[in-house]
Write a structure and sequence with these properties.
The protein is mainly α. Helices cover 90% and strands 0% of the residues. Helix 1 runs antiparallel to helix 2.
Length: 102
Amino acid sequence: MNGTLEWVAAGGTMLAAGLIAADLGRRVTGWGFVLFCAVAICWIISGLTGGALPIAAMNSVLLTINAWGVWQYLLNPKNRRKLEKLEELQSRAEQEVAREAA
């Protein structure tokens, strides 16, 4: 298999999982799914060129699932409007908490 490509894919997979698990908001989670898509492509290439067809097949399915995550978190117009409204509300809530703490 492809050593360098696999290390990039492994590191990217761990970083993407960390971004999603950290629960830092919809936008960060969406970018975690984007990274998952990129590393799935790396794993597919590595699997196809290295004779590891189960890895390639699994990551083909994961690519589809993660592309759905990108749609849900970053591209879906309805969810984007929700995100923009939530960011407005978050800003107001942070200001209110700061006033209460002072």
